């Protein structure tokens, strides 16, 4: 009886938190809108490295109303691009991320030319994304904002135009990635692609409080999971981007999320932690304050490259370890950031580990010699693990598994762990 009451109390608390987040979503925000007439909608080659998401991108808008503070799209904004934003009334497009949505204009002739070029494009080695065009890479293809209702409707129509032309006039594949359950309304179109289309949701965690703290204006994570379940029931090929996981996402949180994913028989589970780019750490702090989140984000892990590497690597290894325990490691495609191969940060973490384990130790020459070799060996093993994940080409329905690739070996303990041999202590 006591257990039932506890469960009921927890359910009520979760429902209350969900209602609070939904109310925040419905609260009108002033979204600056208009037409981005500089560049019409088209397919362009993207410059992803190691992610194996797609070789091409199709972005229907400049800006994203979800405005996830950890997003690093704004780190790519050049000075000329910033000036174009300023001409449209956005004084600081980096700080104001999430407060504007400029739809790209539709020019069918331009789109078809870009489609024909993409059809013939030779994909460079290391950029293999299964000949897929991704919707979208710098915005969400299904924006939802009370302050931009008409623009959100128009965005969906633009998306349908582009998808229909890709389906009918090319052999290219399509990857849809969104945070919006509104995508369920286009499942009929998605199904018409057969195995040429995969549909995915970005779901870093299923913890409502964490989600509210880190992405207060994005749709409810439980609704996103439900959309994935509906997609599976509709016969679509589905995947998930478990990205980015937050510093508070411990083993219990990761296991809870992966257990839900295991039930969906996903094509791929992509994963990455938060990558520090531009202003995103400051935005995380400011956004949580503005949203009155019940959890204050732990941004101390971003205080230095050394701490950031420790957080990022621990998250990636935890996802691989837990996925292995759950029998779904073959679904993984991890995204180790290039910052994780910094040798100086790696060695600094080894040094910190040594000091913590052997406080006050003064190394003898023999210990220094042994440690130098052990450090280098650990770093080379770490590089092998990173490059192993970089080399993986993500799975695609109907395509044979990648030949010659094996899952990078999971280390038995943290690569930063240092244990001196008994005879050298």
What structural keywords apply?
425 residues; alpha/beta; pyruvate-formate lyase- activating enzyme; 12 helices; 11 strands
Report the mean per-residue pLDDT as an integer.
Answer: 91
| Rounded radius of gyration (Å) | 23 Å
Structural class: alpha/beta
Kindly estimate the percentage of residues that lie in beta strands according to DSSP. Answer: 5-15%
* Separation of the first and last Cα atoms: 56 Å
Q: Per CATH, what is the topology of the largest domain? A: pyruvate-formate lyase- activating enzyme
The CATH class of the largest domain: Alpha Beta
- The percentage helix is 40-55%
Total domains, how many? 2
SSE order: HEEEEHEHEHEHEHHEHEHHEHH
Characterise the protein shown here.
The chain has 425 residues and is α/β, with parallel strands linked by helices. The chain has two domains: 27-177, no CATH class; 179-397 and 405-425, Alpha-Beta Horseshoe (pyruvate-formate lyase- activating enzyme), CATH 3.80.30. The chain is 42% helix and 12% strand. The strands form two sheets. It has an eight-stranded mixed β-sheet with strand order 2-3-6-7-8-9-10-11. A three-stranded mixed β-sheet has the order 1-5-4, covered by helices on one side. Helix 8 (251-262) links the parallel strand 9 and strand 10.
How would you briefly describe this protein structure?
The chain has 425 residues and is an alpha/beta fold. The protein contains twelve helices and eleven strands.
